[in-house]
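Question thread 4412

I'm putting together a teaching handout and wanted feedback from people who do this every day. The idea is simple: show students a protein as raw sequence, then show them the structure tokens that encode its fold, then repeat with a second protein so they can compare. Below is the first pair exactly as I plan to print it.
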Amino acid sequence: MALVSDLGKKLKQEFFKLLKEDEEFRYGVAGLIGLDEILKRLDRNEKELIKLREDMMKSFEQQNAILAKHSEILEKHSENIVKLTEELVKLREDMLKGFAQHDSLLAKHSEILEKHSEDIVKLTSEIVKLRKDMLEGFEHHNAILMKHSEEIVKLREDMVRGFERHDAILAKHSEEIARLREDMLKGFDRHDAILMKHSEEIVKLREDMLEGFKAIQRHLDALGARWGTISEEAFREGLRGLLKEELGLKVEKWVHYDADGIVYKCPSMVDIDVAIRDGKVILIEITSHARPSDAATFKRKADFYEKVTGRKPDRLLLVTPYADDKTIDACAKLGIELYTKV
């Protein structure tokens, strides 16, 4: 018997050791109790979050590329404007040089006129032509400058329209980012709800496991009482606490001397558990393994209790974790309620 007890303890220790150290065994047990599905769902949630972050990073990279391209266009326009400004400065310098040359020529012409008065008319005509050419040149220059001004205005308008398009695109990006943030927050809320539900299910699972372990322990105690590793009285005391916890029955022991040998066919002390609930008397017999003879003995105890106290029991309750078919039939015939859910 001691060997069986040691073997049971070693099996328990080996079981808990495997749960702690063997990951494959732990996941196998977790799969049997439904935890594996919960862990898989958590892994899928983590993968979805990683994918969402990667999509955000790709969107930011595309936006940065568009902004870089816009900056290059602006830099290119800036160079053209600077070049145009330089050309205008050079044109002005050329005009001033031309005016200086014209002044020099006019002074020279005046000297020549003084020396060559006969050529005055011809010179005057040439001056008129020169003035006309100058005016035409100025008009030509004015046309070029006007065209440049128009091009500058168009360039400014194109730049403004480009900025407006960029503003619209950036505004759309801002809206999409805001929507993305809202979708992310909604996703996080859904994940929080799922994780909260998972936590509740895990708590319930733990409670069910604890109840299962308690039931297993009671069955182990029943086996121990049957094989002598623990006393029958210790097992009965444990089940008395269970009856109070689950059925609300406060059990008290009733002991009386059977001088006529009604119960055991010889004079002996008879003890029986008694509970009173709502004014009704309930006699209870607790055993680790019920046999048909136990049911018959329990019925004789009830008859003996009725003879001594003058009160017929309202219910007879036989509590045991193990009962065969013969015992069930015997209890049914003798009016005994059999309770095996322990």
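The second pair follows. I'd like the answer to focus on this one:
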Amino acid sequence: MVNAAAQAGIQGGKLSKSKMIVDRHYSAIAALVVACVVICALPSPISAAEHKKGRAMAPASALSVQPGTLVRWSVPGTTRCRMRARSWAPIGDTCYFPIDLEQKPGVVTVVRRGKSRSESARIAVERRAYGTQAIELPDIPQANPSAADLKRNERERVLLAKIFAGKESAQRFDLPLGKPANPLPLGKSFGVDRVFNGKPAVQPHTGSDYAVPAGAPVLAVADGTVVLAQELFYPGNAVFIDHGDGLISMYFHLSDIDVQAGQEIQKGDSLGKVGTTGRSTGPHLFFGVRWHNARIDPRFLLEDPALIPAL
């Protein structure tokens, strides 16, 4: 028989051995955890091609905006901005990316180029949700257009498409833009789906309506060249100004027009007077903008640029 002391020694030896095994087991686990932390903390590898081109990986998250929004990206040393097939110069060190009013939901990748490298970011475009507005038009041609009216409108759409897709000249404006009327009340109805006399319009409202009284002067928001000044079927008496850098401003429903196509104008010049021509239910000013052929809410250009959503 084994005496008590010996038995205790045997049991103690077994316990010590077991403890050593457990200690080694937990040491191995701790080592694995440390290794994982170190590996996970390392930056993702960049391919040789990406390194050579000086490209940075796109950020994991994306800024979420509605269609019709303007987005800014400010980085010192920015030399070029790109979105899809279009590229343009920054304003100062800032890239401005306009998201078209009818842009489908999804992710849009934008790129800014610096002196030695380029980097990309993502903009998540949400579903357009500006609401619906029912409008009762009086007995005017725009309420019940004839076949001839519709053909005329189609010709005008082709004409305007050429203007919006034209070659972009040098920038001739600063932000914020000037006011298209003074005083200027709050704009409304940008982006809404309109229903005229029970019939849905073919596109959402691409500008903002301002309750400016009839006869008030309509003002140029920046220096530029008048590219179109005439009566159109739905906009009525309208003026379109090219401000360079792909920015076109539009003024609709004027009672009369004081400028002509090809004319050079300065910020604050009178373009005409507020009226109610075209598809309109009363005197007001429609003011809209296209930037790089994207229809955006004009308030982004009329307010402090610091209020523009930023990447």
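Top answer:
Good format. For the second protein you could add a caption like this: Residues 18 and 105 are 61 Å apart (CA to CA). Confidence is low (pLDDT under 50) at residues 1-60.
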